[in-house]
Structures are given as C-alpha cells and as structure tokens.
Amino acid sequence: MKRHFNFTGRQSIPADMVSAVVQPAGQDGIRSFDLRIGDLATLGLPAGARVYVEPYVKSSSMRFAFGTVGAILPPQDRSLPEIDDGAGVLFRVLVVDETDKVGRLLALADKIAPLGDEQQRDAVLPLETRDLGEAVWRLEADKGVRPKLLINSRYPGLKQRLLEDPLMMGAVLPLAVRDAIRVVRHEDDEALEWVMRWRQFVEDVAGAEVAERIFDEGEDDGDEMDEVIDDVCRQLVEKRRYLSRALKIAEALSNG
Amino acid sequence: MAETVRMLNEDGARLFREFVERARKGSTESAPWHLLTDEATSAPLDFAAEVELRAFASRVEFGRYLADAFKHVERRRLSREAGMWNWLALRYFDQLCPPNGAGARKLLATGHYVLEGRFAHNRYYRHLVRAAWYAMALHGTEGEILLTSAGKPTPGIGQWGEISEQLAGYQDILGSRTAMVVAAKLFLDDARTTKRGAASPDGPGSVRRLSTVLRQLAMTHDLRTAEPAEVVVMLPGEFEAFRGGPKPPRKRSLLRRLIGADDARQ
User: Fold this and answer.
1) pLDDT above 70: residue A202
2) Source organism's superkingdom (chain A) (predicted)?
C-alpha cells in the first residue's frame, strides 16, 4: 500500500471546496477560467495566508493571486495564454504562509478538474468536445488524470452521433477503452474514485479475476497483459453487440 | 539599421523548416531570406516592433536585446506568437548556427528554430530565440542561468544545453525567480561560467537533480515566495559540493571497478 509522509503539516483542501469552469477560447484563441473557493477559514487556516491558483496542463502552468484566506479576490484577467492549447486544464489551489522565508504550503488542492455536466462526471469514460484539428477523436489519458474521450467539436453534432450510432460507437469505444485501461492500471492511488470505477467496469465486463490480474499485478509481460486487456475489449464488444444493433437500424431504415 | 519585425505564416514556417532540414543533411545553401518579406510567406504583426541585424557576443546579450526590443508588448501574449519567433529565428539564423568556411552548419533539432502547431510549453520552450527573450523578459539578470552553457564554447548564439533543458522544461520552475537564483548560486562560479559537473546527466547535485528536487520541494513549499537562501539550505546533501562544501568522492570508472583498481591513476 502506498504510504504518504507529510512532515510539514500541509493540509488537503477538500475537492468539493473548489469549483472551476474553463471558458472556451475567444477570437484570440485563448481560454480563460472562473474559479470559486469555499471558506478556507473553516480549515483553521490563518486569515492573512495568501491564496494562489495554478491552472496547468502537463508542463505548462500559470499562477494567479487570489487574495488571502480572509478575503478571496479573483484577479480580473483570468486568461490562459501560457497554458497548452487543446488539452484539458487542471487546477491547483495553494495556501501559502508568507510570514516566514520558506514559503511554507499550509494547504493544497490538486488535480481539480473543471466542472462538466452531471452525466459526464458519473461516466467511466466521460466525453468532451474539443477542436482536434483533423482528428475525429482522441483519448486523453495521462497518468494521474481521469481518462477522457475527446470528440472533435468542428463537426456539428458529432458527440450526439457517437452516442446514438452503434456503428460509430463500435468503431471508437473498444479502442478507447483498451488504451484507457492500459494507462489506468498503472495509477498509483487505487483509492481514487475514477480508478475504482474503472476496476468495477472491467469486473462487470470480464469478471473479478481478470480485474484483479489487470489492476493488482505489478510487473508483467507486456504482450501477455496486452492480450488480457484485448480480451476485455472483445468481451465488451460481444456484450454491447454494436454491429448487430447497427445492422438492425440499417434494416429498419431500408424498409422505410 | 532597424527592421520592422514581421511573422512567418504557415507556408513561411514550412519552407523555413524544410531549409533547416536540408541544412542538417549538409546543404550549404544560404538561408531563405526572401521568406521574411514575401507577402506569400510573411505578414505584418498587429503591433509595432523593430530589431537590428547586429552581432551578439552571447545568448545573454541576445536575450537582453530582445527583452528590451519587446518591452512594450504584453509578455504572456508575445509568448505564443509562433510566427514572430520563427521570423526572428530566420532573421538571426546565421548567428544561431553560423556557416563554416564551406557553408556547412551544425544544427540542433528543428524545434529549436521552427515552431509549428498549437501552443504547447513542451515544444515552445526550446525555441532558441523565444527562450533567450523569455529568460531575460521574465527574470532579468536572474535569467542568465537559463542562457548559460556548460562545456566548450561554440560559435554563435544558438547553444542549448542541459541547464537550459532542465530549468526551462517545467513552467513552474521556469516561472520561479527563486529557482533561478538557487541554480545560479549552485552552478555558476564568480566569473558566471558553469561549474564542472553541473550539467552532468546523472551526477549527484547536478542541474537535472536540482530540477527533480525542486519539484519535490514544491509539494510542501512555495517556490515562488520562498527565499533562495532558505531553499539552498533545504537541499539535500548531494548538493554540498555546489553549495561550497567538500566535493564528493570521485566515482570509479566501470573498468576500475571490474578489475578492482583503486582511485589513484596507475
């Protein structure tokens, strides 16, 4: 079991105290954000401690001063010109003791994802539309972050089409699920809600023993584990019957 | 003589990239200067800026010059102006990688000269012109460490080394003045040249290790507000030699370890 040592007494800010929304890019191609923070004083943090918000994507990040624990004050300019384009933004909230010289972190919230709709929050593999250039879809699955299936926003109604068309679903989902499992199984923190959700998903499709093999085995023979994961996707396809459903729809359409 | 800065459009960037790739394969053709002014490959910026085609003795001098030339433009906005950075890279190409007597050049990877595609820090930070400007625009004198190279000096102003790579690769380190001051304290000597071992790929206390340790420290301390002197004290013992302490024992070579030879030369 992974153990965490916290020698400086840094507190965790509960994720439900922070809610962020990323606004789509304007004509200048730059996104911006809005972020609300709950009453940090209820965590026993000193009123004068500084609050900073850091949106980030992989190695790109920016810092915004958000006032103090006693007086949260979002800056007027919350644009994100130095954050990587076309990727999901996460947020960190830091509370810093600036009375000493070591910049001690009093509290931290990390990996805060912006709000999406309720259905997407509950889905194992949430869908999100984004400008993907010429790509129809892409899986966003970085370590430490919940995987997302990205659908190109440039084609009108593509997301809805995917949800309604079993042929399209059958072409996209098994591959996306396969690649997502390959990443999620290496996640260090097994207690994360979305990791547990993935494990449950695999268990529902292929059984508890397979789920244990995929998520609990450390070192593995790459080819052998790939086969196990491929088999999960094969079972998913058999259960969901994408092609049969698509044929049925096609038949119904041709019969008028 | 001052020239108005422009931007290379997509076609201009593509043709510039193709030239760079040919040069890497040994082509001795001159740089395609016409791309800088042709309407088909370049365009005006929506703000005014001028630069001079003059010689620079070092990356630091180059960076200072650019920081001054663009001080009237909002830094964060300028940061993602790929077309402009490509234009400048072409403009100063003969200084970034000077041709030898036969016209051949020694080039780094293409991404150090040409930016293509949407903004992504992990590609943009390596652009040689943008990097020089960014270091000085953001940190002033403290940014000099980002533009310092270890090892033998090479001609021109187009160097890129381990120090640049490790300190600029993560924006939370790149954006921290404290991290820059700490790195300069550890790795620059009184003459502002790099100390031996600072750019070692796997040595204890190297800049690569500093980057890793600072990111670990950032879990409990805010690198932007901590005082540099306090951070230096917090660094683990492997940095002792660079802090001014005794040097660690010299690592024996693999051969010496295999044959059981001691440290002394035989």
Assistant:
1) yes
2) Bacteria
